[in-house]
Design brief:
heterodimer; A: about 300 residues; Glutamine Phosphoribosylpyrophosphate, subunit 1, domain 1; Alpha-Beta Plaits; 2 domains; 7-stranded antiparallel beta sheet; 6-stranded antiparallel beta sheet; 17 strands; globular; B: about 230 residues; alpha/beta; 11-stranded mixed beta sheet; about 25% strand; elongated
Chain lengths: ~300, ~230
């Protein structure tokens, strides 16, 4: 099943409360998938010339993130959650990725960019939300996911959101049926995968299309041709997020907006927790149509 | 019934009482009772399984399966309804004073479902005898495998209207560009105009002109195996 939620602030008040509001939405959806949870928040962007890395340790031992930051050279730990951490690095995220792949093989980069901070963990959403202090965080926008695993093992690495490029991430409700073939194709083209998860393939697919020069909207349009299966995708971007449902649209999605926020969720009950939801404009996104929100407003 | 005979409205609050208590109260009420249900908050299965001639006003947006399996009751949703509103309705009346999610009126055997706004995909899927009137547009695969009953759409119909339809009659005022397998446009005869006029009146749209609608139904070519 899985549940997904996205929230985009249009007012400073909602920005301040965004972590708490997104947490409230995700908890409403916990029944749709209690295996694992994940949250991506876009907040406190670092200036050009620096980058934020969201790092996950795959091994059983606790990582000494401060020591790793020091070895990385000029990095600082923005948040230490034991199994994962947010680091700020000087210079290019790509260089840091390369260094980490050579010097810290048990650490994987689950997201990177100027603004994105990604947290994920197995277990119910409330454990992640409380454990990482999500409710106290401000953000311009964020995405959340609560997982009921169908296609691969329940692991932190297999939890959503999945990174699809700088400041990009994807959450997925559904299941893809041709993910093995698409993964093989994408590996041939140089896209790397950490799990046998179907949703990671969707993320990798978008990464590949974006590297080929597509806009996010074009990449999503192309996914309608190349990805077979059921999906509602929400993709977080530096400035907002995008939503796409497959042409059959078996997987639910509701969108809503007020003057203060725009939101999407698997079910309305998640949106009902938001301030002013009773008077919000509410609609169901049409199948096979890309919706996106950014600073400029809603486009579809 | 005079105004004096009209029973007072009992207000139930989902936030305070919870879904199970509210539904239990509704299911235990005698004919003629009237209720307002506050705080729906998108909860699922609100006013499901009713089986007496009561009236229920849901004051806000409902989640999945609202008024599912309804018998005899009148349920009005003053907001949107999620997936499967009035699914498997047997009799009575369900009104959505907003838009409906997917599979509205799925497998409903009797009664009338009126959606004031749009209905999403698979509206009236496998319809088994109920009447479904949508005053906006409907999504793809509306009337999929619908067996009997009537579907009325004031706006446009999405792709694959009436795919693999049996004997349900579909009336569309807007455009239905893409018909599903074995669904065809059919002649509007006097009996159909009369049937449609009665449906429009029942849905509170007696001023709409049945002559503006086209009829769709089964070509009946899927009824028997055709050897290739």
């Amino acid at each position: 099943m899985c549940g997904i939620a996205g929230l985009f602030a249009r007012s400073p008040a909602v920005e301040r409360e965004l972590g708490a509001l997104l947490a409230g939405m995700l908890e409403q959806l916990a029944d749709r998938g209690p295996d694992s949870a994940g949250v991506a928040l876009y907040r406190d962007p670092v200036p050009a010339g620096a980058a934020k890395l969201s790092l996950l340790r795959s091994g059983p031992e606790r990582e000494d993130w401060a020591a790793l930051a020091e070895r990385l050279g000029g990095a600082t730990v923005l948040a230490d959650h034991g199994d994962h951490a947010i680091l700020r690095v000087a210079g290019d995220a790509g260089d840091a990725r390369t260094w980490l792949s050579e010097h810290a093989i048990d650490v994987s980069v689950i997201a990177s960019g100027q603004a994105i901070e990604l947290h994920k963990r197995t277990g119910r959403p409330s454990a992640l939300l409380d454990g990482c202090g999500i409710r106290a965080m401000s953000a311009t926008h964020g995405l959340g996911h609560t997982r009921m695993a169908t296609e691969s093992r329940v692991t932190t690495a297999g939890s959503h959101p999945f990174s699809t490029g700088e400041d990009l991430c994807l959450v997925h409700n559904g299941s893809l049926s041709n993910h093995n073939r698409v993964r093989r194709e994408l590996r041939r083209r140089g896209i790397r995968f950490a799990t046998d998860n179907d949703s990671e393939v969707a993320a990798g697919y978008l990464t590949w299309r974006l590297l080929e020069g597509d806009t996010l909207a074009q990449a999503l349009e192309a996914s309608l041709e190349d990805l077979d299966g059921f999906f509602t995708f929400a993709v977080g971007t530096r400035d907002g997020f995008a939503v796409l449902r497959d042409p059959i649209a078996c997987k639910p999605a509701v969108m809503a907006q007020t003057a203060d926020w725009v939101a999407m969720a698997s079910e309305f009950r998640a949106i009902a927790t938001l301030p002013g939801a009773a008077d919000a404009e509410v609609w169901e996104p049409e199948p096979a149509r890309v919706y996106s929100w950014s600073r400029e407003g809603v486009t579809a | 019934m005079s105004a004096l005979d009209t029973p007072p409205v009992t207000t139930l609050d989902l936030d305070a009482q919870g879904l199970r208590a509210v539904n239990s109260a509704l299911q235990a009420a005698p004919d003629g009772a009237r209720f307002a249900v506050a705080g729906p908050g998108g909860r699922h299965a609100i006013a499901a399984g009713l089986h007496a001639a009561i009236e229920v006003d849901v004051l806000g947006h409902a989640g999945y399966y609202c008024a599912g399996m309804n018998q005899a009751a009148t349920v009005r949703v003053h907001g949107n309804a999620g997936v499967g509103v009035a699914e498997n309705m047997m009799s009575g009346r369900v009104e959505v004073h907003g838009s409906a999610g997917q599979s509205a009126g799925a497998t409903a055997h009797g009664g009338l479902l009126v959606v004031e706004g749009d209905a999403a995909a698979r509206c009236a899927i496998s319809l088994k005898g109920a009447d479904v009137v949508v005053k906006g547009s409907v999504g793809h695969a509306t009337g999929f495998m619908a067996q009997t009953g009537r579907i009325v759409v004031f706006g446009d119909a999405g792709p694959a209207l009436g795919d693999s339809i049996y004997e349900t009659r579909i009336y569309v005022r807007g455009t239905a560009e893409d018909l599903g397998a074995d669904c065809v446009a059919k002649e509007m005869r006097d009996e159909h105009r009369a049937e449609l006029a009665a449906l429009l009146a029942a849905a509170g749209a007696g001023d709409a002109d049945p002559g503006d609608f086209r009829r769709y139904g089964s070509a009946r070519t899927l009824y028997h195996w055709q050897a290739p």
